[in-house]
User: Which sequence fits this backbone?
C-alpha cells in the first residue's frame, strides 16, 4: 500500500513538472487543479520559475533561519522554498533540498544552475529514510509534503535524527478536523493534492510529540476549501451535502518544534 501511494505521488508530481514547461501560472500545475499556495512574490530569494504552486503555507516565515546555518527542505520540488531559505542562510550557509521524484530533482538542479548558487544542492531521497548523517541539520522546513508520506511516525523520527541538538523545524502542512468521506480518501488526485493523505490535527501533533520534539506549537492556521466541482467528481449531490453538513474542516497549519539540546 505504501509503495502504491508513493508511486501515485511520483506520477502526479512528474506530470506537474512536465506541465510547468508550458504553464504560465503556478495554479495550472497543481494536481487536480488544487491550489492552496500562499503568495511568495516580494520575498527575497523568490524565483518564479521554481514556484509550481504546490505549497500550502510559507514555512520560512516562521523558520528563524540564521546566517550560516544548514537548512534541509523536505520535499523540495523545483526549489521554491530552498531558494528562499538560501537567501536567509546567506553565502556561509548551506541548503539541501530532498525530494523522491526524479523529475523534480532534475528541474530543481536546472533552476539552481540558472541562479548560480554554490551552497545549494538537491538530493534524491525518501523522507522516511533521509540520506543524511545524524545531527547534521540546524533547521528543517517543508511545505505541504509530510502529509504525502505514508508513515508519519517514521518521517518525523527521521527529521529528529538529522537535526542537531537544539535544532528545530518549521513545517507547513494540511490536517483535518472531522472525517473525509471514503470516496475522497481513496481519490488519487486528492492524495497528490495533499488532502486525502491528511491526518487528524491531534494525531498529527501527536506524531511530532512521539518523535521526541519539544516546544511544539502552531504558528499559523487557516481553513481551506475544495471547489464543489471537484468534489462532485467523487461524491453524489447528496453525499456532497452530507460532507458540508458534517462540519469536517481542512486546515493549513504551520507547525514548529524543537529537538532538545540535551
Assistant:
Amino acid at each position: 500500500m505504501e509503495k502504491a501511494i508513493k508511486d501515485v505521488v511520483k506520477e502526479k508530481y512528474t506530470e506537474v513538472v512536465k506541465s510547468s514547461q508550458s504553464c504560465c501560472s503556478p495554479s495550472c500545475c497543481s494536481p487536480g487543479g488544487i491550489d492552496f499556495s500562499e503568495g511568495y512574490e516580494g520575498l527575497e530569494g523568490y524565483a518564479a520559475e521554481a514556484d509550481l504552486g504546490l505549497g500550502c503555507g510559507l514555512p520560512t516565515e516562521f523558520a528563524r533561519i540564521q546566517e550560516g546555518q544548514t537548512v534541509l527542505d523536505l520535499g523540495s520540488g523545483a526549489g521554491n522554498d530552498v531558494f528562499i531559505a538560501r537567501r536567509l542562510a546567506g553565502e556561509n550557509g548551506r541548503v539541501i533540498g530532498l525530494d523522491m521524484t526524479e523529475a523534480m530533482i532534475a528541474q530543481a538542479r536546472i533552476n539552481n544552475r540558472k541562479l548560480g548558487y554554490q551552497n545549494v544542492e538537491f538530493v534524491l531521497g525518501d523522507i522516511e529514510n533521509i540520506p543524511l548523517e545524524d545531527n547534521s541539520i540546524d533547521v528543517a522546513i517543508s511545505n505541504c509534503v509530510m502529509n504525502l508520506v505514508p508513515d508519519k511516525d517514521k518521517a518525523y523520527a527521521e527529521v529528529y535524527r538529522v537535526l542537531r541538538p537544539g535544532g528545530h523545524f518549521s513545517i507547513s502542512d494540511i490536517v483535518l478536523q472531522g472525517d473525509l468521506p471514503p470516496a475522497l480518501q481513496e481519490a488519487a488526485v486528492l492524495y497528490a493534492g495533499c488532502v486525502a493523505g491528511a491526518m487528524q490535527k491531534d494525531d498529527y501533533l501527536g506524531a511530532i510529540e512521539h518523535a521526541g520534539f519539544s516546544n511544539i506549537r502552531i504558528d499559523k492556521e487557516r481553513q481551506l476549501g475544495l471547489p464543489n466541482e471537484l468534489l462532485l467528481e467523487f461524491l453524489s449531490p447528496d453525499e456532497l451535502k452530507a460532507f458540508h453538513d458534517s462540519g469536517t474542516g481542512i486546515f493549513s497549519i504551520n507547525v514548529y518544534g524543537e529537538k532538545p539540546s540535551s
